[in-house]
Amino acid sequence: MTFTDTPQAPGPVAGDRRRWFALAIVMTAAFMDLVDVTIVNIAIPSIQRDEGATFSQIQWITAGYALAFAAGLVTGGRLGDIHGRKRVFLIGIGGFTLASALCGLAVNPEMLVASRILQGAMAALMVPQVLSIVHATFPAHERGKVFGLFGAIVGLGAVSGPLLGALLTEWNLFGLEWRPIFLINLPVGIAGLLLGSRFITESKAPRALELDLVGVALVTLGLLMLLYPLTRGRELGWPLWGYVSMAGALVVFAALVAYERRKSARDGSPLIELSLFKVKSFAAGIAVQTVFGIGLGIFFLVWTLYMQIGLGWSALRAGLTGVPFSIAVSVAAGMSVQLLVPRYGRKVLQAGALVMAAGVLIYIWEAGRYGQSIASWQMALPLVVMGVGMGLIVAPLTDAVLSEVPREHAGSASGLINTVQQMGNALGLGLVSVVFFGVIDERVESAGAGPAAFADGFQHALGWVAAVMGVIFLLMFALPKRPAQHVEGAEEAPAAVGKEPELVS
User: Fold this and answer.
1) I need a surface site. Which of 123, 215, 268, 496 has the fewest CB within 10 A?
2) CB-side neighbour CA atoms (13 Å) of 143
3) Coil, strand, or helix at residue 502?
4) DSSP state, residue 446
């Protein structure tokens, strides 16, 4: 069935039953991406042990994905607008599946890092199309139900990812060790590719913006100049070139701002819409998303290494230990959006930052008090408290950040929010070298106590996470006291561009 955008029949047609198949396909792809991040974290110690990867290499297994994903998100959305969201989605899911196969078949850490970077780049093509396809496929009165299902998928991904990764690693299927965590994507991706080509309806933005490849190159270069010295500097003894590179990254980011300003004036299609930063709530919200990403990037990698290497736990025990955290996030997120934020507004998000900081401080105290003998059940309290705090923040934050953004820039602002969160995550993973491995090196040199040093490094890294939560609490004062439930006109704006999609056969 063909849809056309006409005055008599604008937008999608509700009677087409294929749209529910299309929804299942794009949500499966989104679920695959969400699970892939958490599933890899839990298997990192096994990869490090089996492949003999250095600590900087295991940082890049996660940071490389986040960096490629962040750098390509906005461009991925624009490509869908220009060339067709179905077409770009299918290329993305096909490439993601191929990259997953390369990850699972990697013969050394270098190949695994390169394959993860490719996987992140393909996710950047695939993920931005999901919400755009939903907008193009479903009429306005059905989107509330659809986004409710999407929220449930996000919650399920948060809960199931670590546990699935732990089970696949622990089972050692066919003697493949950790490799099934990537190979499991193959049947899912192939099915999505075949079914998506049949059931997803093509859509484009009739007045799509042009690509800003120079902007993407400058963002990627600046982040590489900042992250590479952070991850390799410890192993190389912090050489002078590392400090020069990090200082040079600031010059690259300044050049990016100047270029984006000129491009905006010339053709109105910059990678970053700088005028958005004149909106105080948006500028503060971008800062919150970036700093929050840094905190999460530090915590999740350090937490996994602490449990499996520092405490010597199996992947399954570590995965099960994290279940209370995931459940708490999901429950608190639902309550935050439906009950608390409509009544108390910004205070809910600020309470979330303080509650999460309290959970981190409890965790620091328990790690110091119980040392190597700490049990999973003793971790439940700080993890639940942290999960509640995180849930209070993550669900309503985007609405709060977008609530004062002009209608015509809603799509650009949404893409930028996702991009800076991934960039923050990559930066946090890079900082692990400083806040965690640097402490371990000092403890091992002075006392020679390897496992105990991980507990010290864990406490030190969590101190940084608590400080991050304090910064987030202060930045949130710039958010609106009572964020609007929806951006004006956002219902008509696909995620990548703030225009109604044109539906084509």
Assistant:
1) 268
2) 20
3) strand
4) H
